[in-house]
Amino acid sequence: MWSDRLSQVDDFLLINLVLESPVGSVFEAFNVALKDAFPLVYTVELRIAEKLSLIVSPSSKKMSPSKVLVIGNYCQTITVVRSLARAGYYVIVGCEEKRVFTQYSRHTSAIWRHPDIKKSEEDFIAALAKFLAGREDIALVFPVGETDIRCLMRHRDAIPSSIGLVMADPAVISACFDKFRIYEIVSQLGIPQAKFYKVSEYSKLAPTVERIGYPCIVKPNNSQTALFGKKALILRTASDLKKMLPIWPEGNEFLILQTFAPGRRHNCHFVADRGRLLVYFEQRVLRTNEPDDTGCGVDGISYAPTAKLRKYCALLAEKLNYSGVGCAQFLVDDQNGVVSFLEINPRLDATCALPFYCGYDFPRMAVLHAEYRRGVLSEPPENSFPYPVDKHGFSLWRDVVGWIHAVETQNLNPRESLEWLKEMALTFFHGDFHLTWSWTDPLPASYRFSKVVLSAFNYLARKIGLSRRH
Q1: Cα separation of 437 and 414, whole Å?
Q2: Which among 153, 144, 212, 156 is positioned nearest to 178, based on CA atoms?
Q3: Around Cβ 460, how many Cβ atoms within 10 Å?
Q4: Cβ(269)–Cβ(352) under 8 Å?
Q5: What is the chain's Cα-based Rg?
Q6: Edge-to-edge strands of the sheet including 276-288?
Q7: Would you put residue 213 in left (φ > 0), alpha (ψ -120 to 50) or beta?
Q8: What percent of the chain has a predicted confidence (pLDDT) above 90?
Q9: Is 102 in contact with 83 (CB distance < 8 Å)?
Q10: Whole-number pLDDT of residue 131
Q11: Assign residue 321 a region: left if phi > 0, alpha if psi is -120 to 50, beta otherwise?
Q12: Residue-wise DSSP of 159-195
């Protein structure tokens, strides 16, 4: 009987049927064991979920739940799904692959399979327009990542005017994603940042680096163009230039060179409306998924608002006439107090789960602001409640994947590898919140880890096979 039922459903419904089957009792027992082992964490998460409604504007509580189409599957997407579902929204998740981890969340109401944006924007937009034409009940489209935001910015005319886009205005998006342009704006505002130079050809790299001195930073102007798989390169010696940048990276009209600025990265999450800063949450990144700390954050803490950084965010928001959610990043050197602007992203940061668990629900505020701009709400969302500081948010999945990549690319020696594993274990046991794992919604993170385990088995099988042949 179960085989007959399973043959009639897709992957999304399969999860629910498994939970109804005898296998589900095993899963439930495991879930209960986790709750018994970590009762405090489980209780805290439930209480936080209940208290997140504090940021809702009074007028929004009277509106009927809207249907939201979420585009893009990233670390922060699962926070978006959980946030909006808990607020009463009907969440539809877009899937560009056969399976994505967010489709297994109990908070996902439905899924929509669509063409891969990276392969063909035109095919994606045509499919989106067709889907929305037949779904007049969908009120909002929420693009989560940079690829999705850029695509919808370029094809806004293809989206029915009755549907709101949960993203910043096109002019703001263009300015923020253009690093050289935003650096010039930052300079005009008097916000401190490392000296920067534009280099348009390979032959001028070495002379410019010599003028800047070592160490220095090389980064693309567009974060979506290739730089040998890295967000940025740190050149510490003359030999690093030829070793790390042997040729001009494809797809880059020019590169940006900067003097090296030491310090910890601070992520400043915010909501603004027409240039006025409404909400501010600060976090410090302690570790990333790259040995040189140029990667994505895997361990961070909530940090008491820094007056200077909040002021700089307010200046940027005003200059850009910013409306919506965003995240500005700065480097802060504790030894001398020097601050250096890093970048500003017109989207939710990948670590937005940390403020979410601290009572600052940026995904929901993004939707409420979009509703306000559409005239559905009479006032924008605001949140000035004090938030707890020194709360650890960590991403074990991203940490594990980063370590595996570093080992495979031989970027770690044995001592460094053991140190990474030690930090990973300490973070896991002493952290307060996981950025993707949830005790009440465990399947998305479980699916992600199952893929890591399968990849590890395949890797070991190849290694064993090669050793036997030799």
Answers
A1: 29
A2: 153
A3: 10
A4: yes
A5: 23
A6: 339-345, 324-332, 264-273, 276-288, 297-303, 392-394, 433-434
A7: left
A8: 71
A9: no
A10: 96
A11: left
A12: S-TTSEE-S--HHHHHHHH-HHHHHHHHHHHT-----
Helix (H, G, I), strand (E, B) or coil at 29: helix
Q: Domain ranges for the chain, please list them.
A: 1-37, 194-259
- Residues 344-401 have pLDDT tens digits of 999 999 999 999 999 999 999 999 999 999 999 999 999 988 999 999 999 999 999 9
Q: CA 249, CA 380: separation in Å to the nearest integer? A: 43
Q: For residue 460, give the amino acid letter.
A: L
Nearest CA-CA partner of 347 in 363, 369, 333, 335: 363
State phi, psi for 168 to the nearest 5 degrees.
Answer: -70, 170
Q: Is the dihedral of CA 68, 72, 78, 80 positive or negative?
A: negative
Per CATH, is 194-259 categorized as 3.40.50.2000?
no
Contact 142, 69 (CB under 8 A): yes
- The separation between CA 122 and the C-alpha centre of its own chain, rounded to angstroms, equals 25
Q: Is 235 exposed, middle or buried (0-12, 13-18, 19+ CB in 10 A)?
A: buried
The mean per-residue pLDDT over the stretch 199-210 comes to: 94
Q: In the structure, how many helices (H) and strands (E) does the chain have?
A: 17, 16
Which single residue is written with the structure tokens 């937005």?
352
Q: Are strands 138-143 and 164-165 parallel, antiparallel or unpaired?
A: parallel
pLDDT digits (tens, 9 = 90+) for 212-233: 999 999 999 998 887 888 889 9
Q: Using alpha carbons only, what angle is made at residue 449 by residues 445 and 451, rounded to the nearest 5 degrees?
A: 120
Quickly list DSSP for 410-432. T---HHHHHHHHHHHHHHHHH-S
Please state, in angstroms and as integers, the Cα–Cα distance from residue 210 to each residue in 175, 259, 311, 395, following that order: 30, 11, 34, 38
User: How many other C-beta atoms are found inside a 10 Å radius of the C-beta of residue 223?
Assistant: 14
Report pLDDT for 460. Answer: 67
Secondary structure letter of residue 383 according to DSSP? B
Q: DSSP of 325-347, one letter per residue?
A: EEEEEEEE-TTT--EEEEEEESS
Mutual angle of helices 396-408 and 443-469, in 10-degree steps? 20
Show the CA angle centred on residue 228, arms to residues 462 and 444, nearest 5°. Answer: 60
The residues with which 219 forms a beta bridge, in sequence order, are 256
